[in-house]
Amino acid sequence: MKARASPSIIRRSFILPVLLMLAFILPFMFLRVAYLVLESSTLCSSPLDCMRLRLFGGSDSSLLRKELERALEEVNNNNEVGERIEDVSSVSFTDLVKDMVLNRQDIKAFAFKTKTMIMKMERKVQSSRWRESIYWHLASHGVPKNLHCLHLKLAEEYAVNASARSSLPSPEYMSRLTDSSFDHVVLLTDNVLAASVVISSTVKNSGNPGKLVFHVVTDKKTYSPMHSWFAMNIVASAVVEVKGLHQYDWSHEVNIGVKEMLEIHRLIWSHKYKYMKGEDFEFLVDHERDLEFLSPRFISLLNHLRIYIPELFPDLNKIVFLDDDVVVQRDLSSLWHLDLNGKIVGAVVDSFCGDGCCPGRKYKDYFNFSDPVISADFRPDRCGWLYGMNVFDLEAWRKTNITRTYHRWLKFNLDSGLELWNPGTLPPALIAFDGLVHDIDPSWHVAGLGYRYPQVSLQTLKAAAVIHFSGPAKPWLEIGIPELRSLWTRHVNFSNKFFTKCRIEE
Fold this sequence. Notes:
This protein has helices spanning 7-43, 47-55, 60-76, 80-83, 93-103, 107-139, 145-160, 192-204, 220-232, 252-278, 301-304, 309-312, 363-366, 372-377, 394-397, 402-415, 426-432, 458-463, 482-489, 497-501, and strands spanning 183-188, 212-218, 239-244, 318-322, 326-328, 345-348, 389-393, 437-440, 445-446, 466-468. The chain is of the alpha/beta class. The strands form 2 sheets. The protein has a 7-stranded mixed β-sheet. It has a 3-stranded mixed β-sheet with strand order 5-10-9. The longest helix has 37 residues, at 7-43. The protein is globular, with a radius of gyration of 37 Å.
C-alpha cells in the first residue's frame, strides 16, 4: 500500500521554488521600477507613461536620444535663452547636476540651463580675448624704458661730449648730400635704435656701400640723441645726415599746409576714437583691428610728413624711402635705376600669395564705401599699395599736383564729417597717387610682420629684399614675435656701451 504525500509537504515543495524565483526576480524588478520612476521626471509626461513605454516596448537609449534631441532643438530655437543668460547661477557642471537632481527638473530644463551656461562661458572667453587684445595694443603705444633711457643718455652725451656734436656728415662729404649720382635713402623717424638697424642692415647688404647717402629727418626733441648716436657710431663707407625739423627754413605756404594737414589728421583720429569709445562692440571680433587706429603714430607729424618729401629735399631727383621698422636683407642698388614708366612712386601692389591676395589691405579696409563719392571712384576689393619701402621720382613728382590733391581730399573729408576713411597716412595717399603707382616685384617688400598672426612663410621672408614690421608688434617691443624678432636683433650691437647702460638686451 503506497503512502500518500502530506498536503503540507506538497505545498512546501511547490512554494519553495516560487520563493526562490521571487528572491531573484524582485530585486531586479525593484531596481527597474525605481529607474523608470526616476527617469520619468525627465523623459515622459508621467511615471505611468514611462513605465508603460518601458514595460511594453521601446528602447531606453533611442527614446532618451530622441527626447534629448527634441529638447535641444527646441531650446536652440528659443531666443529667450540669450535674454535670461544672467539668471543662470550654475557656474560648473557639478552645480548643474545638483540643481537638476534636487529640483527634479525635466530634460528641457536641463537643455535650457546647459545652453545658457555655454553662452555665458563663451561671453567670458570673448570678453577675455577682447581685454587681452586691448592690453596688447596698449603695450604697442608706449615707449619702453630702455629706449627712453637710450635717448636720455645720448642727449646727455651730446651736451657734454664735443665728438657727439661733430658735423654730420664730415665736411669732405657734404657735397654728396645733393649729388644725384649717389643712392639717396630717406628716413623720417624719432627712434634712434630703429634708425640704426635700418642703416646698418642696408649697408651690410649693399654691393657698394660707398654710394649710399642716408638722410635721417627727426623732430626737435630727438635731434640731439640721433645726432649723437651717428656722430659716435660712424657708418663704414656710407654717408649719414641727421637733420631736425626745426632746422628747415620752409616757406610760409608750406608751414601753413603742414599745420593744416596735421590738424585734419588729428581730427580724423579723434573722430575714430570717439566712435570707438561710444560703441559697444566688445564681442565683435571684426573691431579688433580698429584698435590699431588708436596708436599715437597715426597722428605723428613725421609719419604724415612723407607727402612733403619733395619740399624736404628740393635738390634730389630720385630717392628710396624706408620706414624705421624695416630690415634690409638684399642689395637695393638696382632700385635707383628702376624705370618707373612715367609713374611717380614704385611700390609693391601685387602679392606673393597669388591672385586675389593683397600684400597689405584692400580699399574696403581703409575707406567708407557707404559714401557715394568713395563708392563711385574706387573698388572695395582693390589692393592698396605698400607704404614703407618705396622709390620716389621727386623730379616727376614736382611736376604734378599730388600734394595739392592730397590736401584737397583732406579738406573734403573734413567737410564730409570725417567719415571718408580710417586714420592713417595711406588712405589719402592712395587717392593722391591714384594712377601714378608703378608695381614692383613683391619680393622687394614683405610687410605685416608686426601683427600677431603674420601670414608669411619662412621661404618668403628669406627671399625678401626688405621685411617690414608694419603693425603694432614692433621688434624693439616685448610684444614682438620672437621668431621674427631675431631677424631684426641680429643687426643690433648689444655690446655698445649705451645699450649696456640702458639694458637693451637680445
